[in-house]
Structure formats: structure tokens, C-alpha cells
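Chapter summary example.
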Amino acid sequence: MRVARCIRRAAHVCLPALACLQVLAVAGDPELVPTIVAMLADADPEVRAIALDRVRYGAKGEAATSQFAGVIAKLTAAQQASLVRALADRGDRAAVPAIAALLPAAAEADVRVAAIRAVGSLGSAGETALLIRSLAAGEPERSAARRALTILRGEEATKQIIAAAKSGESGLRPVLIDILADRRARSALPDLVALAVDADAGARQAAMRALGKLAGPEQIDGLVKGLLAAPPGDERAAAERAVVAVCTQNPGREKAAEAFLARFEASPEADREALLPTLGRVGGPGALAIIDRLVADADAAKRQFGLKALTRWPDATVADRILGLLGDSQDPAERDMLLAALIRIAPLPDNKLNDQQKLELLQKTMGLCQKNEDRARVLERANAIRTIETFRFVVPYLDDPALSEPACRSVVELAHHQKLRDSSKDEFVKALDKVIATTKNSELVERANRYKEGKTWERKKG
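The structure predicted for these 462 residues follows.
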């Protein structure tokens, strides 16, 4: 008791003497726990700061944690939030009951948010329902609860989230499904497959998003069912993206692509037509063979299906095919579709071409353009090929009144890359001066001036 009395006396007489508390608390003197507890409510913020530091890093053990947590209800709201954060940093689950009790009782949002975050980092399955209820609150509690459920430990917690996603409140189901994806909960895959054809559109779309992140070859059949269940439009497009991600990005993607091709070939004609655009985006030799047959078919409708799939190809390996078709086609709509595909694939970062080949394809595409709107799209896509040759290809269009604006945008985007800009500084300064004199876009003018001066520029958010 004498040690504790000395510390309390030092705390109120000479503030620097509080360093003594740190030294003694590290030494583990059991008398210090009630002293730290008392100091948590001290009027002096520096005294409280030292006490919070000891909560985080000193006086080890569950008994001390319970004493620290036991004082929460006696503190002001600001003090409660600070103590809860310190207990979360301490990492002892013994604090969870006292912290969880704040959620229905605390009037201050800051306290509730701190409690939600602490429960997420310290808690387990026993707190799942409490955190799910917090998802229905307004911000910032809702975001804190989502993060807390994402990091909440234990497979039992995952099971409870799955159960709520399957049969919980309609408005929360998509959020809970997204949380399962964020948890990388592969144990949820069978349930996600079932949810992909759910009657609730929000749950259905969230399930397809989650499958796009987590699924592998074994889930292809369920993904296809989800894609076919999605109505045409934005939902169908998002479902296609999920299938493509599984077949081109996820672990096991090669087998997933093979499974999708087999599922496509085994499908009835109506389903094949719906799946064909996705087949084109997945790509691969098997898909190309199917598409080639369709494009060569005498049936105009089948040819159109084949062309649509071909123009969705994920890389430039079909460029020669598209160029050949474009040269032969007399149909304006077909030509527009093929030209748009060339403009899209030429500068793709993973399109199997080197930078020079990309630029050559883009230049060849520019030569095929008959409308300024297509030429403008070529110029806007060009800045994805970050070479001095691309810059020199774009610069002459600064003098074309019909194309100067897209040319200005590409010149400025290329100038954004300092190494490229510095490699031919005089050329860039001259072009940026022309941009400043030509463009009507104030942001481009600002960027051009900054790049001329060797400064950086950060894209405005929102």
C-alpha cells in the first residue's frame, strides 16, 4: 500500500514523477492495479494517459483485465471510449462482457463504435449476434460492425453468419454475404451456390460476387445456374464477371475454364446462347474453336452470337481474326462492333503483346477508323501504352480541332509518368504548352502546368 500511496502523491504533486508508475507497473507490483483503476477516472488527461498505457502494456493477467473493465460503467463517455480502445489493444478476452454491455446502453456513438471494434478483435462466436444487430445501426457503427464481423475469430462465428445470410433480415443478407467473402470463408461455398439462385435479388447478386472471389472448379455448375438466373442487364453482366474471375484469376482457374467449357457444350441451345458472351471473355482454344464455327455459320443469327463472343475476348490473340473480319465485312453495325473490340484489346496490360506491338495494332486500328468518335477513342486508349513512341503518335492530333481534346487528355496522362516525361523533357514541355493553349478543361491545364514544373499531381477523389 505504501508504494501505491507514494505514486498517487507523486501524480498530484509533480507530473514528471508519473514515470515512476510506468517502471513499477512493469515490475508487476500487485498494489498498482487499483491505483491504475483510480487513475483512469482522474481529471488530469496526462494522468489518465499513463494509466491507459498501463492497461495496454502492464499489470498482466485476467484478474487485472477484469478490474480494469469493471470500472467502465463509472467513467464519462470519452473516458469509456479511451478505456475500451486500450482494452482492445491489451488483447484479453476477459474484457469482452463489460465491453459488450456498452452496446445497448451507451448513448454516445464514439463509445459504441469503440465497443464494436473491441468486440470484433477480442470476441468470438458468442458475440456474433450482437455484432449482426449492430449492422442495422447507422454510420459509423454499421461500418465498424462489418469490419468486426470480418475479423471475428472462429469457424462457429462463420456458421452463424451463414445462417443469418440465409434467413436473416432481407436488408442485411447481402451485407452478411459480402462479409463471408471478406472472411474468405470457403466453408460457405455450398451455401453461396444455393444463394446464387435465391429469390431475393440482393442476396443473389451478393452470392455471385462472393463466388467470384472464393469459388473454384467445383462451383462452376452453381455459378452457371446463378448466371442463367440473373436477368439481362446489370445483374447478368455482374454474374458474367464473377464466372470470368473464377475461370481466369482464381486458384484452379485452368480447371475452372475447362469445367465451364464442358458445361457450355452440355447445355441446351437456349442456355448456350446466354452463356456465349461469357465463353468469349473466358477465352482459351476450346472456346475459340466454338466461336470460329459460329462466325463461319451461314445462319446470320449464329454468326452474330459468335461475333459478340469474339469481341469480348480477354486479350489480343484474336486481333488478326478481328482485322480479317473487319476487312471483309460490309455491315456497318458489324464493323462498329469489330472496331470497338480492336480499340479495347490493343492496349490491354496482359494482352500477350509488347508495347511496340500494342502501338502498332492501335495505329493500324486508327487507320481503319472512319468516324472521329472512333478516332477519339483510339487516342484516349493510347495513354495505356506508356512509351515515347506512343506520345509521338498522339502529339500531332493536338492540331486537329476535331480530336484535340482526346489528344490533350492522352498527352497529359502520359506526362503524369515522371520517368517517361523526364526521358524527353523538351518534347513534353512543348506538347504541354500546346495542351495549355488548346484545351478547355481546367484540370488538364492545372496538370500540364505542374508537370512542366516537375511537380506531381494527385487525382481528386470523388
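To summarize the output: The chain has a mean pLDDT of 91.
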